[in-house]
Amino acid sequence: MDTRRRELLERIMADLAAGDRAMVFRLISEFGGELAAFVHWAAGRDGYRLSRQEVDDLVFDCADRLSGLAGSWRPDGGALPWVWARRALVSMIRYNLFGPVSVDPVQMAEMCESEDRPPPVGPHDERDWLAKLEGLEGTEPRVAAFLAAVEGVSRRNVSVFLEYRVQQWLSDPEPSRTVGAMFGLKPNHVRQIAHRVQVRLRQNGVERVA
Amino acid sequence: MTKPPPDPAVSTAFAADPVRMRDRYAERLRGEGLEHPVVAATIAALRGTAGETTEEFAERMGVPPAAVLAAEAGLLAVEELPDPLRFAIRGFDHRA
Description:
- The complex is a heterodimer of chains A (210) and B (96).
- Chain A is an all-alpha fold and 210 residues long.
- Chain A has eleven helices and two strands.
- Chain A has helices at 3-17, 23-44, 52-69, 81-84, 86-98, 105-113, 129-134, 141-149, 155-169, 175-183, 187-203, and strands at residues 101-103, 206-208.
- The model of chain A has no long low-confidence stretch (mean pLDDT 84).
- The model of chain B has no long low-confidence stretch (mean pLDDT 89).
- The chains are: A mainly alpha (210), B mainly alpha (96).
């Protein structure tokens, strides 16, 4: 992207961050092509071919979502806004196209333990479920949906949540105590973390299969 | 490895349907409880597409900035708008 367009983008994002929501239309008029390319890419990951109307609607939805996130985007970070926020935007696009996604945390934990899964890249903590899941993101749509939905949640809290659900499924009589011992947390704290992550998943269109 | 997003220097040929964009925004505003969401969305679309501040848009339209603010806040019905804004909305709708 040339300097002039980059500067224009930064001005638009600054206006949105300042609360001028009408600049959503400026973002679309100037960068609608890029947003449309992003929308096609996001839907194409699920093999879905968009109609013209769906492209229009999703371009608007992405621009509107970016207006809400504009205050957190840092131009000196280098990434374009829709690339920086890609997980949140992909999660929203999926929800708008397909409705809530059903994700079973225990099933995902089993995928992580499968011998077929690619190993995590680089040194990692064995308790770090995100490190295990990120290798599956490109091949497992449910994993991708889950990762998009927990964007911004700490790695530790995601791992605590998944371990807690696994222990419950294993009929552990005291899952919060077991997981607390793994992570050096009090049982009450484990339950709070699990509840907050569950709320975040629901807010982002991911339902847990009972 | 997940396929990365498209090259930012390459965009698809895309021309936004302004009325569809306006209508989508109006639905958003309706959900937020604005009394006159279509008026609000249309004025926002006109001003935002031009990239103008409230003051710049008001000056170009020949209306007080307060009228633009009230219109975008959904406080004014079409018939309550100053003539220049009412005509601008009519012109926008005739694009459909």
